[in-house]
Design goal:
five-stranded antiparallel beta sheet; 3 helices; alpha+beta; hydrolase; 1,4-dihydroxy-2-naphthoyl-CoA hydrolase; Thiol Ester Dehydrase, Chain A; fatty acyl-CoA hydrolase activity; about 140 residues; HotDog_dom_sf
């Protein structure tokens, strides 16, 4: 089952044309990712300041299907999928209250040792998180 994050588009998310600035869509997706970690009882302070592992984003992509404006209510459905013992991806589906898909995004993450910058296996808390929110019906 995917994780769903609800949000209202804010003025700060938009550009001079009044639509969501393209890079802010990834920031909004990252908010959904962080909230899914939080809901899964992963301590965000410990997670993002961990000395044993880091999980940087190594790829990101967004497809826009319709503009988003200040005041729009959106939901972000998050579909994580483990790719190998060190790597996972998250597919995001941004939808309206009427269930219309207005954007899709993907981020790919890799687990590394923060000191040596070498790949390492995902920690058990991330395996648990992946299993909690994974769905075989991916976008």
């Amino acid at each position: 089952m995917p994780f769903t994050y609800n949000r209202i588009i804010r003025f700060q998310d938009t550009d001079a044309a009044g639509v969501v600035y393209f890079a802010n869509v990834l920031a909004i997706c990252h908010e959904a990712y962080e909230e899914s970690l939080n809901v899964s009882n992963i301590n965000l302070q410990e997670f993002f300041r961990n000395n044993n592992f880091a999980i940087p984003i190594v790829h990101a992509n967004v497809d826009f299907l319709r503009p988003m404006f200040c005041g729009d209510r959106i939901s972000i459905n998050l579909f994580p999928n483990q790719l190998n013992p060190q790597k996972f991806e998250i597919k995001y589906q941004i939808i309206t209250p009427e269930n219309e898909t207005i954007a899709k995004a993907i981020t790919k993450h890799i687990c590394i040792d923060p000191n040596s910058r070498t790949r390492k296996e995902l920690p058990s808390q991330m395996i648990d998180w992946l299993q909690q929110w994974s769905d075989t019906n991916l976008l």
